[in-house]
Structures are given as structure tokens and as C-alpha cells.
Amino acid sequence: MQRRFQGPPTSFIVIAVALIQVLGTVFSAGHQAALRPLDPLAFILLLAGPAALAFRSSRPVVMLPVTLAATFSYVLLGYAWGPIVLSLALSIILTAAAGLRWQAWLGAGICAVAVVLFSVLTGGETGLVRASAGIAWVAILVLIGEGFRRRGERMAEYRRRREAAKQAERDEYRLTLARDIHDVVAHSLSMINVQASVALHLGTNDPEKLRPALEAIKAASKESLAEVRQLLGVLRDDAPLSPAAAPSLARIPELVEDARRGGLEVRFENSVDPERVDPERVATAQQETAYRIVQEALSNVRRHSGAASAVVLLELAGNALKVRVDDDGAGMRGAAAGNGLTGMHERVQALGGTLGLTPLEPGLRVEAMLPLNLTQGEHRP
Q1: Which of 64, 118, 228, 381 is deepest in the core (most CB within 10 A)?
Q2: Contacts of 357 (CB under 8 A, 6+ apart)
């Protein structure tokens, strides 16, 4: 695809060149003895070149032939010498800038031959100098146009890469948002489903214990709605009506308690005090990822594994935050990873960490190592 040099507006170029050629020629005609006075045909030829420049955007192939014909006709008819060559010079530049290289070099070659013939015919001691200067100038005009073309290509490539980077950023943002919504909805609906089953059972066998199950459903649905509203509010560039607390290490005990209310026996082994965590070392991204991993892992345990118990481990291991969830269920049983596990991998990889799924006897271990932000004086092992 040809890249065209944009430059000033076409109308400005056409008007400016027309004024320079006409006024300049009228002025110079009064100071030289021309073979033929300026007449209507002379002015038509003076305006034909600038008019051809109007096709620089729509049909650049038209410019150079028209300006060549108008300029040569004007000179051969013996009119007064003036800035008639201005439109011809610009047409060579703009033709090369439009990517019509062969046409530009052909037009420059015709001009060079004409200059040499004119120098030979007029003779004189400076004929060779004029011929050399004319050839050099027409070559320079083509090279200027080539420079404009290459600059336009570089600018177009820069804009393309910038737009591609913006699109990649938008895609990554949408992917992150989709993972967040999946985690929130999957966890909450799983918990609501479990509590609803408990409520149905208690409604028949033990109505007095029905209220706690219904309260758990209400709390889970309220929290889920608040988080989804917050995420969707970002899409609208709007502040959420009821902003939920940001996922963090301090909220992981809530996930453990939700799982316990759902009938799962969960032991929480935590050696990380959220109140004393250095936010510059364990950044928000690491804390949110740790929260989402525990959330998704416990949701999978309740929905798929048939486990009776689970262990959630959270500790600082060297320069990494270790997050581990073990259960005594049926494990993967050869099933392919779903959206939840895929989202876990993507979150961990985005932070430069690792995620492992290890079969247990019985059960499954989900373990993530999230690298910390190192302070001065620390180094990665």
C-alpha cells in the first residue's frame, strides 16, 4: 500500500503556487525582452501546473504529466521566463512522496535531458555547469519526495504499533474483568447453591435451624451483587453504588468461613498477619491474586471434588507469597482445566509466579508462588 506525504492542505498548495507563478512571471516579464508577450494562453499554461497539483491526494499519477506538458509548452512557445518551474518541481516531489517512484524518476530524467539539451544549444562557458546543476537539482527533488514518503511510512507504522498496543491493553483489561466476574459469580452462586440445599433440608427436618442458612444466602448474594456492580461500574466509568471491599489477604478468612457455613471442614493455616504486611512488598496485585486463588479453589472443592475437608495455607516463603489449598476429594479425575483454573494460571503468570496442581491420595493440591516486590538490598534467589 502506498504511503502519501500529507503536508499542508492541497488547496493551500494550489493557491500559493498559482499566485507565485502568475505574479512572479508578470513581474519578471516587465524586466526582460521576451520573444512572445504574455497572452491568455500563457496564463492558462501558468495555471495548468498548479491546477494539476489538486490531484495529489485523489489521482497523484496525473500531476507530473500535466505539469511537464504545461511547463515545456510555456518554455517552447517563448514566453517570458519566470517561476514556471515551481509547479513542476513540486509535482516531482509529491509524485515521489506518493510512492510513484518510477514515474518520479522518469519525469526527473526528462527534465534532466531537457536541461542538458538547453545548455548544449545555448552554448557558452557555463553550459556544462548549468547542465550539471540542473541534473543535480532534479535528482534532489526526487530524493526529497522519497524522504517524505519514508517519513510517512514510519509515522504510519508508529501509529499502527501504538494502536495495536492500546488494543492489547484493552483486551487484557477485558480479560482481567472477565476473570474477576467469573470468580465472584462462581464463588457466590456455589455458596448460595450449597446453602439453599441446606435450607431445603432443614425446612423439612429442623425448621429452627433454617434462619442461619437463609441469612448466609442473603449475605452471599448481597456481597456478590456489590462486587459485580463495582466491576460493571468500571466499564461505565461510573462509581459503584455500593462499593465492595477490595480483595486482599485480610478478606481470605471470610472465604474460609463461607466454606465452613457450606458444610466443608476447613483448616486455615496462616502465618501472614495482614495488619503487618508491608504494602510495598506485598502489593495489591499479589493480595488480590491470593484471594482469588483461594476463592476459586474452595469453590471447585465444594462444586466438583466431593471433599469433606480442606486446608488453606498462607505464608511468606523467601521472596514469594505461598498460597496453597489441599482437599480430600476426588481430584481432577482426568478432567480438563476449566475457566476457573485457566484464570488462576493467567493471574499468576501475569505476576511472574507459578501455579501447580498436584494430585494427593486422596484429593488435589493447588499451590501458587507469587513473587514479592523486593526492597532495596534484597535479591531474588
Answers
A1: 64
A2: 332, 341, 364, 365, 366
Are the C-beta atoms of residues 228 and 181 closer than 8 Å to each other?
A: yes
Burial class (CB in 10 A: 0-12, 13-18, 19+), 19: exposed
226 class by beta-carbon count within 10 Å (0-12 exposed, 13-18 middle, 19+ buried) = middle
Residues in the chain: 381
The helix or strand, by DSSP H or E, that contains position 359, with its residue range, turns out to be strand 354-359
Q: CA 118, 121, 124 angle in degrees (round to 5)?
A: 100
Helices (H) then strands (E): counts for the chain: 10, 5
What pLDDT score does 242 carry?
42
What are the DSSP calls for 67-111, one per residue?
Answer: HHHHHHHHHHTTPPPSTTHHHHHHHHHHHHHTT-HHHHHHHHHHH
Tens of pLDDT along 27-57? Answer: 888 777 766 788 889 899 999 989 998 888 8
369/351 Cα distance (integer angstroms) = 10
Burial label for 90, CB within 10 Å (0-12, 13-18, 19+), is buried
Top-ranked range on mean pLDDT: pick from 109-118, 277-286, 327-336: 109-118
> Residues 326, 332, 337, CA angle at the centre, nearest 5°?
105
pTM score above 0.85:
no
Instruction: Write the secondary structure of 261-312 as one string of H (helix), E (strand) and C (coil).
Output: HCCCEEEEEECCCHHHCCCCCCCHHHHHHHHHHHHHHHHHHHHHHCCCEEEE
Contact 93, 23 (CB under 8 A): no
